[in-house]
Amino acid sequence: MPLTKRSGTFPNAKKSLGQNFLIDKNIARKIVDAVPAKAGQTVLEIGPGRGILTECLLAKNLQVIAVELDSFYAEYLTDIFKNYTSFKLIHRDFLKIDLLQICKEPFHIVGNLPYSITSPVLFKLIQEKKLILSATLMMQREVAERIIGVPRTKNYGILSVWVQAFASVRLVLKAPPDVFRPRPRVESAVIQLKWKNDAEQILKNDVYFLKLIKSAFQKRRKVLRNALKGFIPPEIQNAIHFDFARRAEEVPVEEWIMLSNRLQNMKRS
Prior knowledge:
The chain is an alpha/beta fold. It has two domains: 15-198, Rossmann fold (3-Layer(aba) Sandwich); 203-268, rRNA adenine dimethylase, C-terminal domain (Helicase, Ruva Protein, domain 3, Orthogonal Bundle), CATH 1.10.8. Helix content is 36%, strand content 19%. It has twelve helices and nine strands. The chain has helices at residues 25-34, 52-59, 71-80, 99-102, 118-127, 141-147, 158-164, 199-202, 206-217, 224-227, 234-239, 253-268; strands spanning 21-22, 42-46, 63-67, 87-90, 107-112, 132-140, 167-175, 180-181, 188-195. The strands form two sheets. The chain has a seven-stranded mixed β-sheet. It has a two-stranded antiparallel ribbon with strand order 1-8. The chain is elongated.
């Protein structure tokens, strides 16, 4: 099924929605091939736009739920995929949707995300992670590199620690600007997240954990003894078996989780 209308029939991309449409079918196929879904399983697509990923998903015999905010493309996709019983279009803002109302069984997520909503989408996925088997997401390359960042590198920060506390992450591919229309000013990348089954048992208080790592990385040039003295009093630091002589970027995710849990235990005792 062709995915382009006659010349001039697509409206201009809306800056307010951060629209940059993927036009490279080879990259679209690689993204969909990376999604670890089996035939018959459900994949929720965030912002399908002109449907280039949607077509590849349907070709793999997947059940597709496409969430599209733009009225034109919601109507367009409904029309071009009307013969697919495995396709469902939801014309709404993904960030305002209760995922449990959409699908009762766990599902996979894929999407070419508008750069401006990448962080809100990630936080929503973490909040509703029990329903999500995996998430394969296109985003700004700089943000992707921060998410997959490792200790002792400039990319390792709040986003790295927060996401990796809940999910294993990997880089799928990088995408140059010329595979999109309109052409963005920055490079993009696709990463994949798979949730850790025991994340909730390991991390006792995710709200406190986020406050902890924010406090540490906001003063990333300072050693933790000084960076965290407003968050963890010196007498508490001295009572915990943890090396506060390091900078935030030197501490692995597992140790951040351990520190957060120990502090929570001390509060309860």
